[in-house]
Amino acid sequence: MTRVRGLVLGLGVIFSVILLLGCESTENEVDRSLGSQVSSSVASAAISRIPSEGGMSEPQHQMFSDGSQGGISVSGSGSISVEPDLAILNIGVEATGKTVSFARSEAASAMDSVVSSLKKEGILTKDIQTQQLTIYPRYDYQTNKQVLIGYSVTNTARVKVRDLSKVGKIVDNAAASGGDYVRINGISFNVEDTDQYMESLRKQAVQEAQIKAEEYADSAGVKLGSLRSLTEVGAQSPHMPSAMDNQMRAMSVPMESPISGGELQITVTVFTVFNIY
């Protein structure tokens, strides 16, 4: 009986070993099968990246995170040099006195004389615009003490001069009429109506942008598509300050002040984006 039990126990051990070896064999076969599939997938992925015969595939649109397509962004400008047809004169008076009343009266009288001289030269009332009127105290500092010594009154105006040949004469007459109270704060030149140049400048700006975009597309090896967007930055306001922009006090001069308008540059700039494919 004891021998039979030993024989049964031995057979059970042998059967367990066989089952264990069978499981390991099956797992190895599964691992080899999965490894083969993964290797096959990697190989297929690698092959898909290889360009087909005849070279690289056609360039595609670049896609950004927002889903928009890539493109070429360039700017273009159109400009022209023109002679100014308008002079802007900043002229004023400054008077001082021990009282506000006296300083204001002196300033008002001097400014009336200046305006009268301007109108005699053909300056229209609508072209004379008051810019600033100030009244402020004047102090002197003596032994660390502030002492009121009087008041100053200033009155400035912006004057449009449309006949540029008369600018020097107008400045001289205004200075003479207001005497030592007159202040010439600056003069600049401008073009009053720039609309007449805008159509031509805009066309020039767009054409320049188109040429730039075509050059970039050719250099990058892509084809230029349609215009996606266009933004005009705005025409630069033509403005040319003269050497008289620094304040100068009126003085008697033996001859007419030489003032020249020169030339101004009017520029229009646009930003564009072109599609590519």
Question: So what's the overall shape?
Answer: elongated
Number of strands: 9
User: Strand share of the residues?
Assistant: 25-35%
Major sheet description: 6 strands, antiparallel
Structural category: alpha+beta
Report the total helices.
4
State the gist of this model.
Helix content is 39%, strand content 33%.
Task: Provide structural commentary.
The protein contains four helices and nine strands, in the order αββαββαβαββββ. With 277 residues, it is of the alpha+beta class. Among the domains are: 1-50; 85-190 and 242-259, Alpha-Beta Plaits (2-Layer Sandwich), CATH 3.30.70.2970. The strands form two sheets. Strands 2, 3, 4, 5, 7 and 8 form a six-stranded antiparallel sheet that branches. It has a three-stranded antiparallel sheet with strand order 1-9-6. A hairpin with a 2-residue loop joins β3 (128-142) and β4 (145-161).
Task: Sum up the structure in keywords.
single chain; 277 residues; alpha+beta; Alpha-Beta Plaits; 6-stranded antiparallel beta sheet; 3-stranded antiparallel beta sheet; 4 helices; 39% helix
Topology:
Blueprint: H1 2-49, E1 71-82, E2 86-97, H2 100-120, E3 128-142, E4 145-161, H3 167-178, E5 182-190, H4 195-220, E6 224-232, E7 240-241, E8 248-249, E9 264-276
Antiparallel strand pairs: 1-9, 2-4, 2-5, 3-4, 5-7, 5-8, 6-9
